Amino acid sequence: xxxxxxxxxxxxxxxxxxxxxxxxxxxxxxxxxxxxxxxxxxxxxxxxxxxxxxxxxxxxxxxxxxxxxxxxxxxxxxxxxxxxxxxxxxxxxxxxxxxxxxxxxxxxxxxxxxxxxxxxxxxxxxxxxxxxxxxxxxxxxxxxxxxxxxxxxxxxxxxxxxxxxxxxxxxxxxxxxxxxxxxxxxxxxxxxxxxxxxxxxxxxxxxxxxxxxxxxxxxxxxxxxxxxxxxxxxxxxxxxxxxxxxxxxxxxxxxxxxxxxxxxxxxxxxxxxxxxx
Length: 277
Ligand code: AMP
Ligand code: MN
Ligand code: MN
Ligand code: MN
Known about the structure:
- The protein is globular, with a radius of gyration of 18 Å.
- The chain starts with a strand and ends in a 35-residue tail after the last strand.
- Helix 8 (195-207) links the parallel strand 5 (182-185) and strand 6 (212-217).
- Helix content is 38%, strand content 15%.
- It has a 7-stranded mixed beta sheet.
- It has helices at residues 18-27, 43-46, 83-109, 116-123, 130-139, 146-154, 169-178, 195-207, 222-234; strands at residues 3-4, 32-35, 55-66, 69-76, 182-185, 212-217, 238-242.
- The mean pLDDT is 94.
- The chain has one domain: Metal-dependent hydrolases (TIM Barrel).
- Helix 4 crosses helix 5 (130-139).
- It contains 9 helices and 7 strands, in the order βαβαββαααααβαβαβ.
- By secondary structure, it is of the alpha/beta class.
């Protein structure tokens, strides 16, 4: 059984419709797929519920911050109709709208043209994210490609890296738990923290009620997997895995495209009531 518990549709910054994402995952051999769009549940209002393979785990990826860094928490097996979660999502989306204005203003103060209107048009009613800025920068010739846009303007420590108004880590975990879901610390290796700091983050997350951690996210080294598996065992956090698939543009990235979970961790789906081996 292949479980891919982290993926994006075009309800956030992915490129495929939720139904096409499910189809693509099925064609890639995935048996169970979680759709985990950034700060939105819109995919679940659009999905064709007759699709039975892959099995769908409703999910979300919520943005928050810890100390001075941006952190993502994945909620798995949530009830997409949960009033608490829906209210939280509306709050996050208001923050995203305000943040888009701040990002545009900060880029303008660096001598770039005002891109707010173009970016809102690209986002087309979906919550605005930095990839929307990147897409505009590429089409307007401001950056050569998405990577360059992040490297120069949007990535960590750059003017577009604004962590404005996200709900706190404990609050986000509470929304997920109230929606009946499992809170998962997403892609821990991406924060580039020292081992000690990552352990503090994971400990704070656990105290807030988080119960799982992504031990495998996309292609990663055996070293990273071994380290995260140990963290998962030491802190008694269940282990999740996923591709963080966004689009087929990159031929290395596909649903299910990641190394298997090691044997010495407890897979998060075994903590759910209904699962098949
Ligand atoms: P936001 O949700 O607005 O903070 O944007 C974060 C999203 O930007 C992530 O989920 C990734 O999809 C994308 N992203 C982050 N860093 C990079 C990068 N260096 N190159 C391309 N995309 C990135
Ligand atoms: Mn993304
Ligand atoms: Mn993320
Ligand atoms: Mn993601």
